[in-house]
Amino acid sequence: MVPQSTLLKLGGAPDGREVRIGDLAKATGKTQRALRLYEELGLLEPETRTAGGFRTYGADALERVRWIGKLQELGFTLQQIQQVVTATSGAAPKDAMEAVRELYADKQAELADQIARLQQLQGELASSLHYLEACVSTCTADGTSATCCGTCATHRGERAPNLVEGMRS
Question: Residue 67 domain-assigned?
């Protein structure tokens, strides 16, 4: 639940029950357009509409939008988030939680693979920087410095890292 003081800051009613879409957008850093899309996809439901047609949301909407944002940060697409919502609506609690656990476990494995790839790339960047720092400190300034890597005394016989070698092609 969102504290009443937070809802009041958002322009909510004194009873803390509802906020308009613009206030929810400000509180979550999302656009009104994004919130409408979430509604279209069944991820977020307005509690009511005002006589003027404005969407109003209950206190739980703030947490729901933050939850959607956190899943997006983890790399879930809106369609995958729909799967999570679908898996939990109408299903027996045990089945719902198992379905969500499987989706989360798959995402965790995907993130672990992505982290491993990024660590490998980070290593390649580090070795390239080390190689290039030697060039900068030892190559001459007579115009050969741009092509000296691999031919100067510092790197003679040494294979350039892929990120450096690729520049020569």
Answer: yes
- Assigned domain for 97 exists: no
Residue 76 to residue 81: CA distance in whole angstroms: 6
| DSSP for 50-116, written as a single string | -TT--EEE-THHHHHHHHHHHHHHTT--HHHHHHHHHHHSSS-HHHHHHHHHHHHHHHHHHHHHHHH
Whether residue 103 contacts residue 87, with contact meaning beta carbons closer than 8 Å, is answered with: yes
Which among 76, 104, 128 is the end of a domain? Answer: 76
Per-residue pLDDT band at 12 (split at 50, 70, 90): very low
- 98 within some domain: no
Q: How far apart are CA 166 and CA 127, in angstroms?
A: 14
Over the stretch 27-64, which tens digit does the pLDDT of each residue have? 999 999 999 999 999 999 998 888 888 889 998 999 99
In the three-class reduction of DSSP (H, G, I as helix; E, B as strand; rest coil), residue 126 is classed as helix
| CATH code of the domain covering residue 39 | 1.10.1660.10
Six-digit token string for 2: 């969102």
Under 8 Å between Cβ of 24 and 61: yes
